[in-house]
Amino acid sequence: MRGDGLLNHDLDPGEKGPQDECGVFGVWAPGEDVAKLAYYGLYALQHRGQESAGIAASDGQRIAVYKDLGLVSQVFDEATLNTLVGHIAVGHCRYSTTGGNNWANAQPTLGATSAGTVALGHNGNLVNSAELYRMVQERYGEQSRGELAQGNTTDTALVTALLQGEEGATLEETAQALLPQIRGAFSFVFMDEHTLYAARDPHGVRPLVLGRLDRGWVVASEQSALATVGASFIREVAPGELIAIDEEGVRSTRFAESTPAHCVFEYVYLARPDAAINGRSVYESRGEMGRALARENPVEADVVIPVPESGTPAAVGYAEESGIPFGQGFVKNAYVGRTFIQPSQTLRQLGIRLKLNVQPAVVAGKRVVVVDDSIVRGNTQRAIVRMLREAGAREVHVRISSPPVKWPCFYGIDFASRAELIANGAGVAEIAASIGADSLEYISEDGMIQATQQPRSGLCTACFTGEYPIPLPREDERGKHLLEKPVPTAPAEPQEIPVAEDSGANAGSNGCDPGPDAALEDLLTETDRTPL
C-alpha cells in the first residue's frame, strides 16, 4: 500500500507531534545495507516532513532512485529497499518547500553532470531561486531533460541542474563554484556514483550533523538519525562548509565565511527533543523556556498540563519552577496514522477529539495551566480550551513558550500569511478572549534566547522580530509557487528588498513547515472555530 499524498504529521504514529520540516540523510558505507540504513535514518527524521520520501543509492556504476508520496513506512517496503543496492545512499523526507506537493517534486532529485550523475536532497529554502533559474537558462538553455523538464518546480531542481557543471569539471569542483552563489537556508546532502557530499549554508540556519559508523560515515539533519542507525556523533557540519566522503576518507573545504544565524524555532519547536544544536540540548532549552515562562508569567493554579507532544518539555519546566503539579491532561491517539480512510462527515464533526482526548480526572474542577509552544492562527488553542471547559476545568490559563509569531519565514518554515497570524491582528488580551482562556501569556524574546544559551547575534529570530539575517529579493521573486509561473526577468539594477510591514499577504507560503497550529486544524469543527 502506498501513500495517498494527503498524509501529514497528524497521521504519523511514531513521532512527536506536528514537527514538519524537510529531513536529509546520507551514508557512505561499503559492505553495509545503505538503503536500509537510509530508511531507518529517515524514519527517525519523519517529524521533519511527511508529504513524500525517497532514497537514492549508488553501486559505483549507476544511481537508482525510488520516491513516492506518503510516509517513509508507506513509500518503502522490503522488496523496494532490496533493489537499492550499493555503498552510498541519500535519503529525503519532505514537506513542500518551493513547489507544490506532487510526485514530480519529491526528492532526492536526479540530474546529469559532466562526469556522471548527481542525486540531491535539500532541507531549507533559497531566496534567490529566480536568479538561479535565470542562471540555468543562460548556461544550458531551455531544459529538455532532467527534473525541470519533467515538471519539478522546486529550488532543489534548480541546484540539481546547475550541478551539471562545465565539461571536464568534477562534481566537487562544480559544487565549490556554485555554493557561494546560492543564497538562503540550505542543508544539502548529495552524491555521485562514488562520493557522498554535504553542505550547509554560511548562516547554518538548518541543522546538519556528521556521524561515524564502524565501516563508514553518515550525515543527517539531526543526531536522532545517527543514534537510530548506530552511528556516533562526530560534529556538526559547519556553516559555509562542504564535506566530501569517499574511499580516501573525509575532506572538508570552506566555500564561504561562517556568519551564524541558527533558527531559534528549531529550539522552540521543529527539532526532536533529543537533538542538540550548536552544542545545546533542545530538550534542556525547552525546559528552561518553561521555567522562564513561569518566572515571567506566574498564575495561581492547581495543575500544569502540556499540549502534546511539543509542549511537554516546557510544561515540565513550568511545573518545576512554579511548584504547581504536572499532569497529563490530554491523551493523544498514537494510531491515527494507521488508516488511509478519510473520516466521514459525522466523524469530522468530532473534530480535534479524533486525535486528542481530555482526562477529566486530571482537570475537572481545577484551575489549569495549559502550556503550548506557539500560537499561529489560534484555532487549535480555541478547540483545546473548549475541550478543557467541557471536561470541567474551572479556569484555563494558556502559557506559550515562544513570543508571538508575527512574521513569515523565508528560510524553511511555512507558517501562514501575515494576515492569518493572529498576533498581527490582536493584542494578548484580545487573543485570550478569542480562544476563550481566562488568561494568556507568552515568554519574552529575551527569556527564549537565554534558554538556548546562544548569543543573540548567532540566532535567526525573524518570525518573531521581522529582522531577516539573509536579505530577501523583491516580492515578485519569492513565494512557494514561484517556479510554477513565468519567472520575472532580472531588474535593470538587481536589488534586495526587505519585507515591508504590510507586504505579506502571501509571504509565508514558502518553506518546509505548515506551522504548529496546522497540527490539528484539518479536523477542527466550525464550532471549535467559533469563540466562546
Can you characterise this structure?
The chain is 26% helix and 22% strand. It is built from 19 helices and 23 strands. A seven-stranded antiparallel sheet has the order 3-2-4-1-10-9-11. Strands 5-6-7-8-12-13 form a six-stranded antiparallel sheet, with helices on one face. A four-stranded parallel sheet has the order 17-20-21-22, sandwiched between helices. A hairpin with a 2-residue loop joins strand 15 and strand 16. The chain is globular. The N terminus is likely disordered.
Secondary structure elements and pairings:
Blueprint: E1 23-28, H1 34-44, E2 52-58, E3 63-69, H2 72-75, H3 78-82, E4 88-94, E5 109-112, E6 117-126, H4 129-140, H5 155-162, H6 171-178, E7 184-191, E8 196-200, E9 209-213, E10 216-220, H7 223-228, E11 232-236, E12 241-246, E13 249-254, E14 262-263, H8 264-270, E15 276-277, E16 280-281, H9 282-296, E17 303-306, H10 312-322, E18 330-332, H11 345-348, E19 356-358, H12 360-363, E20 367-372, H13 379-390, E21 395-400, H14 422-425, H15 428-435, E22 439-442, H16 445-452, E23 459-460, H17 462-465, H18 518-521, H19 526-529
Helix pairs in contact: 4-5, 9-10, 9-16
Q: What oligomeric arrangement do these chains adopt?
A: single chain
Helix content: 25-40%
**What's the Cα radius of gyration?**
23 Å
Overall shape: it is: globular
Average of the residue pLDDT scores: 86
Stretches with pLDDT under 50, minimum 5 residues: 1-20, 492-511, 513-521
